Amino acid sequence: MFNASAAAIDRLLREMFDAGVASAQPAVRVPRFLPPAPKGRLIVIGAGKASAAMARAVEDNWDGPLEGVVVTRYGHAVPCRRIEIIEAGHPVPDANGQVAAQRMLQRVSGLSADDVVLCLISGGGSALLPLPLNGVTLEQKQAINRALLASGASISEMNCVRRHLSAIKGGRLAAACHPARVVNLIMSDVPADSFSDVASGPTVPDPSTCADALAVLRRYGIEVPAPVMDMLETGRAESMKPGDPRLARIESHLIATPLLSLEAAAEVGRAAGVDVHVLGDAVEGEAREVGKVMAALARHVNGRGQPFKPPCILLSGGETTVTVRGEGRGGRNVEFLLSLGIALNGEPNIVALAGDTDGVDGLEEIAGAIVRPDSLARARRQGIHPPASLADNDAHGFFEALGDGVITGPTLTNVNDLRIIFVGGR
């Protein structure tokens, strides 16, 4: 029987989160998917928060010659001997990302059918490869990206727009590799593990259209410069589509996914003697609304023993969104937790941890936080009004004041968020 002391619960939730992160480490996942040595050259390219660690795993497990360039977020670099590592801005693109994208295109130009391009893709790659189409400036892309991030648009919607304003995403990088064979190793951080959504699909075909991108911009009332609007309306910004002959030699492998990390976390909970119920790996929606729904479920389990008997753990993954209306620092995991805590209103025997597996929640160098039955009372004793913090999108400030943040530093992987709710029963 699980020891349900407060310290034991905190420890178990953190161990589950750490297990989910550990299961998606590139050193664990990359080696088993490496291709055979080609007749020609092996060129390694990649983008994402885990791309540098993936590159290091390739180097450590590849005997023959190789070369390449990958781009990762500032602070997420891992030393490599033969693969160039470039750091760039995330979630808002910067000039370093543009340089990295240009270098990548140069590396894959002029290849032969005997060459293999090994593409290492993980979450975060969209912002890290900001090479605008001709007629679009980096400043315009940055402004559109900021507006999308604040709008409440889903990751799929944001990436649809990004693909159609890029000279490298939406399959364009794969087309530049032709006639070489392209092998994609993809660490998914998106719902349904859609290849075209991870890093906005630079090396896979894109089934979405300019019309879809326009619909996203209109849905969220995002204004764009007239030249950008014209490119979308005329179809001049169309991406690479399935069936294009330049994309015929693409092979893609999902090497890590949100579901795999959820299963690793669940194993730790079950080994501790607690029933774990996985509610899904693609939970989306406004973070505060998801928090309310999860709180209602947890309270029903806690008080009525339905649909699950306590003690148990409710486990979910996916990526919620935050529509920024206040002056706070945002963060979808902490906003989810603050909303959950407010809805629970001190309900006994419910403790929750939520965090991003890359170690960065929103713009903050903090993975997430933990909320307990006494969190609201402790905050009020410090003069903090929880609903006001939520209204101001300042959940990071709320949990920082309590000292209840979950801090991991860069984890060098990225398979989306983990939300872990312990329900002990009344």
From TrEMBL:
Domain MOFRL-associated: 13-233
Keyword Oxidoreductase among UniProt keywords: no
UniProt entry tagged with the keyword Protease: no
GO molecular function, one term: ATP binding
SUPFAM superfamilies: GckA/TtuD-like
InterPro entries: GK-like_C_sf, GK_N_sf, MOFRL, MOFRL_assoc_dom, MOFRL_protein
Keyword annotations of the record: ATP-binding, Kinase, Nucleotide-binding, Transferase
GO cellular component: cytoplasm
Domain MOFRL: residue ranges: 312-417
Listed name of the protein: Hydroxypyruvate reductase
Organism: Massilia timonae CCUG 45783
